[in-house]
Design goal:
single chain, mainly beta, Porin, five-stranded antiparallel sheet, elongated
Length: 192
């Protein structure tokens, strides 16, 4: 009996999925980002990062439930920051799980957690010894517009929540960089 009810529920779910605006697609765009402050040695103090442009590419799925939707994404993200002329680069996999609300016509808002896995970090002229946690958690929130049936544009803000620092050794001694992103993300998406 329990198996029959489960099969009926699954079939009903697949039928509603096939008849809705649900689907999957590709996305990409630009990040306007900075990571946190860097602290170098005990005498110099903290150095703030200047925002730089990065990029992202990835895929998304969308489950539409009328005015609400769920949109999981898997995105490769490259961020850049500048610390007094020293370039810090980080590449990571972002896995946002967004819940959205269709507002009016093509306009929608969304928010949700983003799981982030750091793939690589690089600071010019410096050896990075250790990133505290390769896996971090952040928040995405933003607004989007659908441009017809297949195209979409969204603007979102992402902020990392988990404390995470990279330790490095340079000419001025040892230091740490806060690797939590704080970025505006502009994306173009294509539904396949």
């Amino acid at each position: 009996m329990k198996k029959s009810i489960l099969i009926i529920c699954l079939l009903a779910g697949f039928t509603s999925f096939a008849q809705s605006e649900s689907g999957f697609g590709l996305k990409g765009g630009l990040n306007f980002n900075s990571n946190g402050d860097a602290s170098i040695g005990s005498d110099i103090g903290d150095i703030g990062s200047d925002s730089q442009v990065g990029f992202h590419v990835g895929a998304f799925g969308k489950l539409d439930f009328g005015t609400l939707y769920v949109r999981p994404e898997l995105v490769y993200t490259n961020t850049n920051s500048d610390y007094d002329g020293d370039k810090f680069k980080m590449s990571k996999l972002d896995m946002p799980l967004l819940v959205g609300l269709n507002i009016v016509g093509p306009l929608h808002i969304f928010a949700g957690p983003s799981l982030q896995y750091i793939l690589d970090t690089d600071l010019e002229g410096v050896t990075i010894n250790d990133v505290e946690n390769d896996f971090t958690v952040g928040l995405n929130m933003g607004v989007g517009v659908n441009l017809g049936e297949r195209l979409g544009v969204d603007l979102r803000y992402e902020r990392g929540f988990s404390d995470n620092e990279a330790e490095f050794v340079g000419l001025s001694g040892t230091g740490r960089i806060d690797t939590r992103p704080s970025q505006l993300i502009l994306s173009l998406s294509v539904k396949l």
